[in-house]
Predict the structure.
Amino acid sequence: MASYTYTPTPDQGAKAGVLAYLVISAVVLLLMMLFGLLMRMEQAQFISIGGLWFYKLLTLHGAGMVGIVALAGAAVMWHFLGQYVQLTQGIFMANLVLFLTGVVMILGSVLVGDFHAGWTFLFPLPGTSMGLWSQGAAASFMGGLLVIGVGFVLLHLDIARAIIKRYGGLGRGLGWPQLFGPDDGNAPPPAVVASTMVTIVNLIGLVVGASILVMMLVNLYVPTFEIDALLAKGMIYFFGHVFINAVIYMAVIAVYEILPRYTQRPWKSNKVFLASWTASTIMVMFIFPHHLLMDYAFPKWFLIMGHIIGYLNTFPILIVTGYGAMMIVYRSGIRWDMCSRLLFVSLFGWAVGAMPAFIDGTITVNYVMHNTLWVPGHFHTYLILGMVAMVFGFMYYLGKPDENAKDSPIDVAAFWGFVIGTMGFTMSFLYGGKEGAARRYAEHLPNWVPYDRLGSIFAMLLIASVLVFIFRFLGRLGLARRDYQRASLARSMAT
Amino acid sequence: MSSHMLVQMPLLAVIGIVACRMLPVRLQDSILVKVGGSVPCVMVALFASSYWMLPRALDAALNDPLAELAKFLSLPLLVGFPLVLAWRRLTLIGRGFVWTNFISMLAVLGWLYIVAPVRVCNSYLVNDQESAGWYMVIISVLIFLWWLGTLMVGGGMGPDKHDSSGSGTTLA
């Protein structure tokens, strides 16, 4: 039986590349939040931007948020994984350049070319615009996604290379020798296990995504090359769902790495932990059909698989991580600050945010709820209060002036503003969904409008809080590069 | 069509692979230096193999003896041979790029053959074209799974990995 003890490791500052990722992520995240607020205010009838701008913003908000949280997640993963394996700075920066190139193509497509088919670019919509956007605009959008995908393939290939070089294979990166054999206590640390899982699933997802994007580009210019619309939807959702799932698995590395520094207790890569990550490596690739349950033309077994795996995949990593965090914190004498607060609340956000998806993954519920605001309620909860909270926690960690630094009341107020704003904002989605408010509608029925208004107000509170987080991080960029003790030691340790 | 594209042509590339591997390592190294390193070799292999994926190239090979000769020379010399030369120097990133590019291209080409509204090769029937497309999609999926499998057990690392054969030319 392996024994686990905490080995203190120095708190390393971030490399310039990581900070570039985080600064861009923070700015774009804020911009996308503002786009989201505008859409919510349009539905709430506070403003009137019209249908065209609503759908243009919806397209930008969807694609932009998926991309930017992936970029932020990659920064967290790269920072901590780089402390165990040797990663390539050039590839990391190449990914950023390709990402920005893709973003410019997408922005051009939407803002100049009026493309507004949604981030899902579902076939045959991009090619059948009925004159609302040009072929070039659709090609620029899909080409932009393709360029961003190429960057992430390169990043993951580099991560795979580094893990294989250090540990001898991706199977070893997942800790299979310890999982399937005796646990000698030498399993890779959680950061490596999570990065391995993300690399495997994203490589598969991105290759599938690239294939459908290229096929749709061919179809765009030579429409006689017809694509099976159902197959296209399946491939798009496979790629999209794997990619957006992976972002939280990247960001959770911050929890695994930082919370133990506060409590001086190890995050154990034990058999249960390793089993949950291996199980999710497989299941995360088969969970996407829960978005396709209304497509009755899919084979029945496919939809049933989505239902069952949707149920199963909700729990392993979430429970192991949530329970692990509680065990690390329980009676540890942890001294709460902005970083530890945000990281701890992120697990609450993840857990709470997963539940609406769990419910929506039930076929009979899905028929009624899936095309309502219930689904945006789910992913906004788990992304904002889960994934994004992890990223802001990481930013506070990097910028903390010293281990005993006190948080200003503004930061604490922003924390509560963030939590309450997100809860109110997402509850307005969930409750609107329960009342039957359709998703992706620019105009809402009068009885849906009160929820939209409440949602807009909470969204303003959320954005105001995020502004504090971002300005605090930007103001402390100079500190973020230095190596020094950041985590406040638990009271029992700090004698 | 399937045997032409998926048996004969890959075997021609394999001839180039085997021929290159039979050369002494020192000679391989000196050729690699003379041709400018691994990147030009990969590019030549990519472009040459892409050309032979075009339907009209298949037609030409069947109808024109010169094109047939070009196929028999170019696939071993411009695809198999340079790929092996470059392979020893490529890291997992380079190899992964080649594999993911090849797999995506094979899958997409297969898909195009399946859904093509016309007969793309004059020399083959539509059902030949469709079955060749399906084979390409299936083969691309199998290659992808095999490649991922090699990563799981630690193969395909690239030049940093010790190769028991001494030549360092494992294919993954």
Remarks:
- Chain A has a mean pLDDT of 92.
- Residues 16-480 of chain A form a domain with the Cytochrome C Oxidase; Chain A fold (CATH 1.20.210.10).
